[in-house]
Amino acid sequence: MSPSTGAILLAAGRGERAGGEKQFALLGGIPLFLHSARVMADWQFAALALVVPAGRELEVAEMLGARLAARYKLVAGGERRQDSVKAGLEALGDVDWVVVHDAARPFVDGEMVERVLKGACPSGAATVGTPLGDTLKRADGEGYIVETVDRKNLWSVQTPQAFRRDLLLGAHDESTGDATDDAALVERLGLRVALVEGPASNIKVTTREDLELAEAILGMRRADDA
Ligand code: CTP
Ligand code: MG
Q1: For residue 10, what is the enclosing H or E element?
Q2: Tens digit of pLDDT for each residue in 36-90?
Q3: Which atom of ligand 1 is nearest to the CA of 18?
Q4: For labeling, which of 94, 183, 210, 215 is most exposed (least CB within 10 Å)?
Q5: 13 lines ligand 1 (CB under 6 A)
Q6: Residue 161 in contact with ligand 1 by CB distance below 6 A
Q7: Residue 128 has what pLDDT?
């Protein structure tokens, strides 16, 4: 039997840096989370979990519409991102591989999903990321530079991230501290996480300003498609 793959789409954050639940803010006239929800639903995942703020499941099902709502298991999220991933993992059930994606990144596409899954094959874990281009400085906390950091081999990482399910479950069970992504939990176990270079357009909406940037990217894409 060929291995089965599930996906967890995370949309249960509070959006504090954006001044509110950014996953429901409108991008191109539809809620932000719906962009990635549509893309992920079109990929051949055996199971899909959409993690949302507790109590918002019905409202989100309506936003999804009947076709997409039938495709997703709606799950209540937790306090921290990793708690929401755990809730998603429990809802997915018995799949071999899991893709985790932040709904705050609307420009994921099927190719990124394919590539991160392929990248995860040898070691069981991979993330999309980009090698850093800017010159990096370490600061002293008072707005002054302490030193220049060599950017060789430095990457910023994004989602999607892909894992063997047993490995990700183990990493979550063993985790003690907080982590802003799942790769960090896996790294702490001493396991290798592959880096797969993704496009610069795979931005995360963190602030209100990012939402404007996302509108601009969307506008460019629509113009290209026309
Ligand atoms: N997320 C989640 N559950 C949490 C925290 C975050 O599902 N308890 C999701 C967010 O909805 C988002 C993704 O994880 O899609 C990345 O998190 P981040 O960009 O930090 O979003 P928020 O936590 O919502 O924003 P902030 O940290 O500014 O409050
Ligand atoms: Mg957060």
Answers
A1: strand 5-10
A2: 999 999 999 999 999 999 999 999 999 999 999 999 999 999 999 999 999 999 9
A3: 28
A4: 94
A5: yes
A6: no
A7: 98
Determine phi and psi for 163, rounding to 5 degrees: -145, 155
Residue with tokens 């990929």: 43
Question: Which ligand has the shortest distance to the CA of 102?
Answer: 1
Dump the DSSP string for 193-225. Answer: -EEEE--TT-----SHHHHHHHHHHHHHHHHHH
208 lines ligand 1 (CB under 6 A): no
Using CA atoms, how far residue 183 sits from 68, 144, 162, 172, in Å, is 28, 31, 9, 11
| The three-state (H, E, C) secondary structure of 72-94, written as one string | CEEEECCCCHHHHHHHHHHHHCC
How much is the average pLDDT of 128-153? 96
Query: From start to end of 118-179, where are the E strands?
Result: 125-131, 136-139, 145-149, 155-164
Closest CA to 96 of 167, 192, 186, 170: 167
Burial tier of 128 (Cβ tally within 10 Å: 0-12, 13-18, 19+): buried
- Give dist(CA 138, CA 114) in Å, integer: 35
